[in-house]
Design goal:
The complex is a heterodimer of chains A (about 450) and B (about 525). Chain A contains 18 helices and ten strands. By secondary structure, chain A is of the alpha/beta class. Chain B is globular, with a radius of gyration of 24 Å. The chains are: A alpha/beta (about 450), B alpha/beta (about 525).
């Protein structure tokens, strides 16, 4: 009996995790295809297996494209081959044409080449096709035994690669960050429609304050950081304003933030002078977006840290308890000594601040302040929160659920993109998914709380 | 008990055919056996009082009849015909009208529209307003209470809304009317009106199932009494054959010597003093003192401004004028938070709406005003909180599975204990009980009384608002009576009669002070 109850509670609280996992498995299966490794690790293992199988008495030509990634690949290949005792005749980084020239040169010099060591992409160049090789063998005896060596290909879902997964997280980080603030607001039985517009306002304020006050092109990293703080401060103040109107005049949050949404969007365009984007000249503007920690983009790190902080605040601090209490029963909370007004204002301020942070990240990403940034993001943010299991009626919801909700939406979008679904159909599927999520939310309540006597 | 009972000898050969028979009804919810083999028989033209403590299964039984719950076992027959009640509509069609404690009226519609809501032939049918109007007036005259059919329900008093609910049931040709705690929110005068309505319905041959905690009402109305305890059918008796004490004994399963604990305590210094507290017309110039170790009862009719006055004291509303002194120090109270910090606490009359966050656990409710006691390094230490709450569970014998139980699932008495626990942890010095035993069953009432006495013995100042005069007289050391926002008098509670209090409360006697 008791065990059953725990399973139920777990399913309710974390059921969305299973939905996410199921989605990932589904998309993985759908995106399985041939993978051709091009990383240095693959190069080293290719070199090792080559030496092991045919011995070290070989002459090898290393071939790759002229990109930095391929250069690393080629270098690794060369180092490992030489370490194994093989002779690297040359390293050719270039195009099929340069490769042809190089091979002809080697043939004329009568420099024996046994293997061309490369990766899948270059191995498909016509110059390396068997006809082309036969032709060359007939011209140059040195090339008569020429064989191709490349890392083995394998079947693997393109969805399930580090690049793609990091890409999903990175793309959805701004929405997920805003969803933290939105979760708090929705737990208090409110809503904030202004986040998308505040995001744009933050981006434009960053751009304009750098351009007008903080030195434009010469702005230092410190000035850029200062501009970020101003932008986020403006958004937090907008949140405070919304909170004050909601609490002092008892205006429904929907209406207050609807107004704020329009005002903030309009002000973004006015500040931008009607332009589509305000260029940011400061050199260090991109630092925030492009830096990384242990190879993980800073946006993702920021997002994860904020989710952890928010989780702790909501579950282990008095403020978190107050937020749930206000949403559960505002009157009872007030009569229990909860500073309801302060809590509500703080919640809207935090939501504004999160939107400001998303806007700052947008400015850093594009190097411009875009007044159209974050258009319709408020709906995606609300969707992430709702899919994450937070009730629009207030009083319940989990920060972790929101994280999962944001990931689910991101994964679906990514999967639909990979499946080549057009953006209009994506909207339909997206919308249907939100309806299903809300439906599940209602159903699970029935399962867990059977009608009491 | 009921004088005009025409069904004194139901066991005789003249026994009429039962209107309703529920036989061996059982219903279980996960983990709870809500009803076990319960049988109910209702005859036309009788009032069957359904009694039991909270959680005894009364609501479940009624909801089974109303088609909200489907029983696991058992049969229901109406006028000898077995019938399947699997939806509220089926129940209505079978002639059952249930008036739940929370009314199902739509505030923005008129009385007439509410009565006929859902009875339109189809969604597009023409509504014959005039005909409906006449029918509504006829129904109201049948009930014996004139209500304007065109008045919006939100403008009606609670008693009038109840009349509309009854009319709605009658419009559906109900022959069985169930009333769940119909008097809970009525003033004494309105309750008298309710008695007359019930008498009138009985006279018309309607069978009435009447649920109430107030034994006075049972005395006055019931022909027969059916008692449930822990989902068990304790039996149905003739109302005449039972004394009050026997009824209580049946309900709680043990004998109670007295409804109120006897207690004499030394009364100390003045702790709380309120002078000239006013707010609009609701509270005018209210002054009183409460000593340490004293229970000050506050009596008055509904609307006399009692709740409004203590809300000012607690900071829930702002007074226009007046001052509050605690232990000689004048307090500036603007919000409940400040009042709580000074040790003034309020247990509201609306426990479910204002006292508790029903969807949260009892421990979270308990912790809400006390988080600073459990926080270290900015984080709440749940183990400390659990330990503190567990102490109260033990001390006050709160019946919960643990701190993690959701407040909504507790019985009224245990909910009240949780609210009290949260204030005791806050070290409350002045504790205001507003209708502390409303909707609480007899056994739990007694426990609440004991707790109040215990707190008074500790030297705390207790204010108790109550609409039940026996409670006021049984518990208070002094009685403050309010009438239309003003203090009508303050009586020392020795040899005070209910009549003395009522005269002040109804304004038929001039202000006295003792």
């Amino acid at each position: 009996m008791k065990k059953q109850k725990y399973i139920r509670v777990f399913l309710v609280d974390y059921g969305m995790v299973f939905v996410l996992m199921a989605l990932c498995i589904l998309i993985s299966v759908l995106t399985i295809s041939d993978m051709h490794p091009e990383d240095p690790a693959a190069a080293r293992s290719l070199a090792r297996s080559l030496v092991k199988e045919v011995g070290s008495d070989i002459n090898v030509l290393v071939v790759a494209r002229k990109t930095s990634a391929d250069e690393a690949y080629a270098t690794a290949l060369q180092d490992e081959l030489e370490a194994g005792g093989a002779h690297v005749v040359a390293v050719e980084l270039g195009t099929p044409a340069t490769l042809r020239t190089r091979l002809e040169l080697l043939g004329q010099q009568d420099e024996r080449v046994d293997f061309v060591a490369t990766h899948d992409f270059s191995s498909k160049w016509r110059v390396l096709s068997s006809e082309s090789r036969q032709e060359m063998a007939s011209l140059y005896p040195a090339l008569s035994k020429l064989k191709i060596a490349k890392p083995p290909s394998y079947r693997w879902p393109t969805f399930l690669t580090a690049n793609n997964l990091i890409g999903i997280l990175n793309q959805n980080a701004p929405i997920a960050i805003m969803a933290i603030g939105m979760t708090l607001v929705i737990i208090t039985a409110g809503i904030d429609l202004s986040v998308g517009s505040l995001m744009a306002l933050a981006a434009v304020v960053t751009a304009k304050s750098l351009e007008s006050y903080l030195g434009g092109e010469e702005a230092s990293g410190l000035s850029v950081a200062f501009a970020f703080l101003i932008a986020m401060g403006v958004c937090a103040l907008a949140g405070v304003f919304a909170g004050v109107i909601v609490t002092a005049f008892k205006v429904p949050p929907f209406v207050v933030t609807l107004g704020l949404m329009m005002v903030a969007r309009g002000m973004s365009y006015i500040l931008a002078g009607g332009a589509d984007a305000v260029k940011i000249e400061a050199e260090s503007i991109g630092t925030l977006y492009s830096s990384s920690v242990l190879g993980i983009p800073s946006q993702i790190v920021l997002m994860v840290v904020l989710f952890i902080v928010a989780h702790i605040v909501m579950n282990h601090t008095a403020f978190g308890r107050y937020v749930y209490a206000v949403g559960g029963n505002e009157t009872a909370a007030r009569l229990s000594g909860v500073p309801v007004v302060a809590v509500l204002i703080a919640v809207y301020a935090i939501c504004g601040l999160a939107a400001g942070l998303a806007g700052v990240l947008d400015a850093s990403h594009f190097g411009t302040g875009r007044p159209k940034a974050g258009e319709f993001y408020e709906l995606q943010v609300i969707a992430a929160v709702v899919v994450g299991g937070t009730s629009l009626m207030g009083g319940e919801g989990k920060i972790f659920g929101t994280f999962i909700g944001a990931l689910i939406l991101g994964v679906i979008q990514n999967g639909l993109n990979m499946a080549g679904v057009d953006s209009y159909s994506q909207m339909v599927i997206y919308g249907a998914l939100i309806l299903v999520a809300v439906l599940i939310d209602q159903l699970k309540k029935k399962v867990v709380k059977p009608a009491s006597s | 008990m009921a004088e005009d009972s025409s069904l004194d000898n139901l066991d005789g050969p003249n026994r009429p055919q039962p209107l309703l028979e529920m036989s061996n009804v059982s219903k279980s919810f996960p983990g709870v056996r809500a009803l076990a083999d319960v049988s109910l028989t209702l005859y036309p033209g009788e009032v069957l009082a359904l009694l039991g403590e909270n959680g005894a299964g009364k609501s479940t039984l009624i909801k089974t009849l109303g088609g909200v719950h489907t029983p696991d076992a058992g049969t229901i027959s109406i006028e000898g015909q077995p019938i399947q009640i699997d939806s509220p509509t089926a129940s209505q069609q079978a002639g059952v009208g249930i008036i739940y404690q929370e009314f199902n009226l739509i505030p923005g519609l008129t009385a007439r529209e509410n009565i006929f809501l859902g009875q339109e032939a189809s969604a597009f049918s023409w509504i014959g307003k005039k005909q409906e109007h006449e029918q509504a007036e006829e129904l109201f005259s049948r009930i014996g209470v004139p209500v304007n059919p065109d008045a919006l329900c939100r403008d009606l008093t609670i008693a009038q809304q109840q009349v509309v609910e009854i009319a709605k049931a009658l419009a559906l040709k109900a022959r069985i009317v169930v009333m769940d705690e119909p008097s809970a929110a009525l003033t004494p005068r309105e309750v008298e009106g309710l008695y007359q309505i019930v008498d009138e319905l009985r006279r018309q041959g309607i069978g009435i199932i009447y649920i109430s905690h107030r034994l006075d009402e049972i005395d006055r109305l019931a022909d027969r009494i059916m008692v449930l305890r822990d989902g068990q059918d304790i039996g149905t008796r003739d109302a005449n054959s039972l004394t009050r004490d026997e009824v209580i004994e049946l309900m709680v399963g043990r004998s109670l010597d007295n409804e109120f604990p006897d207690e004499t305590r030394p009364v100390g210094e003045v702790r709380l003093e309120v002078t000239n507290l006013s707010r609009g017309k609701a509270v005018q110039d209210v002054s009183f003192k409460v000593h340490g170790g004293e229970i000050l009862g506050v009596a008055g009719l509904v609307g006399a401004g009692r709740t409004e006055a203590v809300r000012l004291l607690f900071g829930a509303d702002r007074p226009d004028s007046g001052s509050v002194f605690l232990d000689g120090e004048q307090l500036q109270i603007w919000t409940p938070r400040q009042a709580i910090a000074k040790g003034i606490c309020l247990l509201t009359e609306d426990r479910k709406g204002q006292g508790l966050i029903l969807g949260q656990t009892v421990q979270e409710n308990f912790g809400l005003p006390n988080l600073r006691d459990f926080v270290s390094g900015g984080l709440i230490r749940k183990s400390t909180e659990t330990a503190a709450f567990d102490r109260y569970i033990e001390q006050m014998q709160i019946k919960v599975t643990g701190g993690g139980q959701v407040a909504e699932t507790l019985s009224g008495g245990n909910q009240q204990k949780v609210v009290l626990a949260k204030w005791l942890q806050r070290n409350a010095e002045v504790i205001i009980f507003d209708e502390p035993t409303r909707g609480i069953d007899v056994g739990a009432k007694y426990e609440i009384y004991l707790l109040m006495n215990e707190l008074a013995r500790q030297g705390k100042a207790i204010i108790m608002i109550s609409s039940e005069l026996p409670e006021v007289l049984g518990m208070s050391d002094r009685i403050l009576v309010m009438h239309e926002g003003k203090v009508a008098g303050c009586l020392v509670n020795d040899e005070v009669s209910q009549e003395d209090v009522m005269k002040l409360a109804t304004g038929t006697k001039d202000t006295v002070s003792v």
